[in-house]
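Collaborator request, handled under Task 6.
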Amino acid sequence: MKRLLPATLLAAGLALAPLAQAATLLNASYDVMRDFYKDYNAAFQKHWQAEGGQPLQINMSHGGSSKQARAVIEGLPADVITMNMATDINALAEHGGLVPKEWATRLPDNSAPFTSATVFIVRKGNPKGLKDWPDLLKEGVRVIVPNPKTSGNGRYTYLSAWGYVLEKGGDEKAAKEFVGKLFKQVPVLDTGGRAATTTFIQNQIGDVLITFENEAEMIAREFGRGSFEVVYPSVTAVAELPVAVVDKVVDKQGTRKEAEAYLKYLWSDEGQRIAANNYLRPRNPAILAEFADRFPTVTFLNVVKTFGEWPVIQSTHFKEGGVFDQIYVVQ
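Structure tokens returned to the collaborator:
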């Protein structure tokens, strides 16, 4: 029996060895990407092990994009951050140097592997006749949109509406007035896109939900397609959805190799097809063409060309005391 004990312990040790070597990644992401990363994480784990990597556990943290960025700044040990606008990753460079200032140059397409459009989700039959941005200002129309100060979803709504006025020949004063009127139609500001969806779909508040086009498909999968319709407004800011390794975390935890591979694979054919299957517009033009039936042609507004660099946008519109604070009054 004494001779069997060491062999038994050795066998147990060998069985546990792969588990001890397994790495864990934490991805801090925004609200409406739950379904995409559920699919993508499984595909990447399979790819990683096929390439000879050790078993890899991937954990997710979801919330309003700016809330997520603040959580990482305040100590959430995320190996990667996957956001819906550059400002939230820029914040990590500005506060604590968690990523380098040039983080966007480290991957293709300014580190944004896919894009999205802003859409209106309206009740079945579109009883209020909501077709474009001016319709949202009609008397009695209640608009559901998350807070632009905590949600990239909300910021893109704000910028799309502002850009609509500029595209139609209006000036900055007219745009500010228009967006101010729009947010007077908002009965509640949720902190993130998924919370806004809950307000609209489950709590039945509001006449229109403004969100990313991929969220419309997620709503259809979860709640059925019979209760709403999707309307594409005439102008939408192109949402570029950037990703970055959080350098200070991966260097401390020894997970840089895994984290870099995890993000790089987003540009693979498989990663791009998973994006398209979740109604995110892939960067690969050939794969985008494969899924052209689900991505209507829209008038995209380039945010940087229209408003300036993201730090300027953030400082002007969304910082404390910025334009949004000037125009939004709690109802």
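The cover message to the collaborator said: "The longest helix spans residues 4-21. Confidence is low (pLDDT under 50) at residues 1-20. Please let us know whether this matches your experimental observations."
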